């Protein structure tokens, strides 16, 4: 038995499982990285821990201080539980149409949650976060500009994908929100093998897919580097929803809609290849969406 571990030690090293039913191309292997197995239930645990831990190391914030962040959900949950464990207060700002499960989970972890009007979206939440930073002196982590976001995946997600596929990965697929996951993982994998194809999922025009975004020019994450993404695929709401439902019914993988978007893209790529090893990120767990229409 291992002694001395805390829940923070369980962030990362998530399972990589192979699909058995939804892929028809027998010459290609498709693997799913189950980020819902992180203690906070999503891939965002990695970035949240790295952003807070590095901020504490630099002295950007001190124990007892207050952090503020705008988030559509998963980052907020990760920040809520990690900040408490590291002795910090957390104020989370998010659109009012976020699922009830997410809001209640953040509050259960001890965070203060402020809801902004749905019609101004996450961009409106980001504006309020800046305002509270300036008016109240809170420390803004700013996941959209913070290099510790993507570096979390350079340090952990990328190496795990490389190790678990024994260096045989040919394609890596991720939904693009803050783009931290795809930026960090791409940077690491390209250093190992420049021939690895990086695929990003973004919403088709008019599509609303939690966790995947096509940012307006003023709000594009500052560390996003388009040259690190080889292929970008637009995903419709219907396709993301159907892929999410298929994952649950056919593979036993219960996830959110952004994961469905990621897998939809992975399948488009995998079915077109003569051979290959494709890895797709499963961003979180489906129980965060039971109050939505995702599984109806």
UniProtKB/TrEMBL annotation:
Q: Which EC number(s) are documented for this chain?
A: 2.5.1.47
The record's section on SUPFAM superfamilies has: Tryptophan synthase beta subunit-like PLP-dependent enzymes
Give the encoding gene's name: cysM
Alphabetized, the UniProt keywords read:
Amino-acid biosynthesis, Cysteine biosynthesis, Pyridoxal phosphate, Transferase
Q: What name does UniProt use for this protein? A: Cysteine synthase
Q: Which cofactor does it need?
A: pyridoxal 5'-phosphate
Enzyme class, first EC level, given as a word: transferase
Pathway(s)? Amino-acid biosynthesis; L-cysteine biosynthesis; L-cysteine from L-serine: step 2/2
Q: What is the lineage of its organism?
A: Bacteria, Pseudomonadati, Bacteroidota, Flavobacteriia, Flavobacteriales
All residue ranges annotated as the Tryptophan synthase beta chain-like PALP domain in the record = 8-284
Reactions this protein catalyses: O-acetyl-L-serine + hydrogen sulfide = L-cysteine + acetate
Family per similarity comment: Belongs to the cysteine synthase/cystathionine beta-synthase family.
């Amino acid at each position: 038995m291992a002694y001395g571990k805390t829940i923070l030690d369980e962030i990362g090293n998530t399972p990589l499982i192979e699909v058995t039913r939804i892929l028809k191309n027998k010459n290609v292997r498709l693997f799913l990285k189950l980020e819902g197995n992180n203690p906070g239930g999503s891939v965002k645990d990695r970035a949240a821990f790295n952003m807070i831990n590095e901020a504490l190391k630099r002295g950007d914030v001190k124990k007892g201080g207050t952090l503020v962040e705008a988030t559509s959900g998963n980052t907020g949950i990760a920040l809520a539980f990690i900040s408490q464990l590291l002795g910090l207060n957390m104020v989370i700002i998010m659109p009012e149409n976020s699922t009830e499960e997410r809001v209640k989970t953040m509050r259960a972890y001890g965070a203060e949650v402020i809801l902004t009007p749905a019609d101004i979206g996450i961009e409106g939440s980001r504006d309020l976060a800046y305002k509270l930073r300036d008016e109240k002196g809170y420390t803004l982590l700013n996941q959209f500009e913070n290099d510790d976001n993507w570096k979390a995946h350079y340090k952990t997600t990328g190496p795990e994908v490389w190790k678990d596929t024994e260096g045989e990965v040919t394609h890596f697929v991720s939904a693009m929100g803050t783009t931290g996951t795809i930026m960090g993982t791409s940077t690491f994998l390209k250093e190992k093998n420049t021939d690895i194809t990086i695929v990003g999922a973004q919403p088709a025009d008019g599509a609303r897919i939690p966790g995947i975004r096509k940012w307006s020019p003023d709000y594009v994450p500052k560390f996003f580097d388009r040259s690190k993404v080889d292929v970008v695929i637009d995903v419709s709401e219907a396709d993301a929803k159907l892929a999410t439902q298929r994952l649950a019914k056919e593979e036993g993988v219960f996830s959110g809609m952004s994961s469905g978007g990621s897998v939809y893209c992975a399948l488009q790529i995998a079915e077109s290849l003569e051979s290959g090893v494709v890895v797709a990120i499963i961003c979180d767990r489906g129980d965060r969406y039971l109050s939505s229409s995702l599984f109806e």
